[in-house]
Amino acid sequence: MSSLLIADRIIFSLLNKNIITEDDFEKEVNFCYMKKAARQKVLQAYDLRMKETIKHRDLGRNVSYRHLIRLEGYKLVKHLMNDKEYEAFKI
Prior knowledge:
This protein is of the alpha+beta class. The chain contains three helices and four strands; from the N terminus they run αββαββα. It folds into two domains: 1-50, no CATH class; 52-91, no CATH class. Helix 1 packs across helix 2. Its EC number is 3.1.-.-.
């Protein structure tokens, strides 16, 4: 499972719902920064997404995205230790 999958969905959701708008950015000639209030909105959305659950096919139960990322980490460790070939989680 790619972290981009989670990040992209959060960002597009915030933009599509106008929770984050152009006004949430401070723009100058050589930079563009997200304002503090907007950063807090993004972090709140991220935290909510990490608490959401999905059905895990192999485990046969619901797991949070946070737990799913941890499970993927364990699978990578097993792969690096030549215990088991890594197979990425598929939604």
